[in-house]
Amino acid sequence: MNILNRIINDDCIKGLQAVYEEYGECIDLCITDPPYGIDYQSNWGREGSKLKKIVNDGDLTWFQDFSDVCFNVLKNNSAFYCFTRFDVYPQMYNCLIKSGFKVKNLLIVQKGQKGGNGDLQAQYSNDCEMLIYANKGRRKFNKTKLAKTDGRKGAAEFRTRLPNVWFDTEYNTYPKSTVNVSNQKDAIIHPTEKNVEMIKWFLEISSNQNDVILDPFMGSGTTAIACINTQRNYIGFELEQEYHKLSEDRIHNLVLK
How far apart are the first and last CA of the chain? Predict the structure, then answer.
């Protein structure tokens, strides 16, 4: 497969349709953070500046086609993780069901930094990310040593079934969903950068070494970095040329280490 371990600077729906026509059901796991159709623009740039708007974030009219082609390229008995938001979750859910996915859970993962958007005086601060967890067929969880049980007598040391809410407890420290941009010294280039450690957990739970992992909205390259760190292959798409270069640079710097 000559598209392995590449991030393609192109529209993911068109690109994935080409992948399906040539290779059929070839993907072991999909993890992605698509636009939410909310015309989002981050205010977390340096010195009060705003970051670039997300491309194709005006609506979700494209999401059904996206859902269909993701379902097509995934192998049977595979998993699909998709970031979402409270106000667009119903639309995404309905599209995934129509495509043939079985939506199994809505995951809640604590952010690395609280969100400050919205009505600051009459709206709760957004301290979490939401993810749709779905299956094509039925993907059993891998046994991992990521999270401990609650210490009850006779219980196994590690959890085989993780909770759908990832906030720190007495027994476990869970990875945060996003990078804490206030701690970054360098320029903040991507407005929705995800945490590599969180993606690594999903990879360990729902895929195996040498599997092929898809991220149709690669952004700053976090999924690719997590794949390299866990001995997985990746296929990615990123339409925005600036972010495509950012992700390629991150991978190049990692390989050189």
Answer: 26
**What CA–CA distance (Å, rounded) separates 144 from 161?**
9
Q: What does pTM read for this prediction? A: 0.89
CATH 3.40.50.150 fits 6-256, yes or no: yes
Query: Which amino acid belongs to residue 115?
Result: G
Task: Please report the DSSP string for the chain in residue order.
Answer: -TTTTEEESS-HHHHHHHHHHHHSS-EEEEEE----SS------SGGGPPPPPPTT-S--TTHHHHHHHHHHHEEEEEEEEEEE-TTTHHHHHHHHHHHT-EEEEEEEEE-SS----S-TTTS----EEEEEEEEES--PPPP-SSSB----TT--SB-SS--SEE---SS--PPPSB--GGG--S----TTPBPHHHHHHHHHHH--TT-EEEESS-TTTHHHHHHHHTT-EEEEE---HHHHHHHHHHHHHHHH-
Residue type, position 208, single letter: N
Instruction: Write down the residue that tokens 């953070």 correspond to.
Output: 33
State pLDDT tens for residues 35-68. 998 655 454 444 555 545 555 556 899 999 999 9
Query: Which pair of structure tokens corresponds to residue 13?
Result: 């729906």
Domain locations in the chain? 6-256
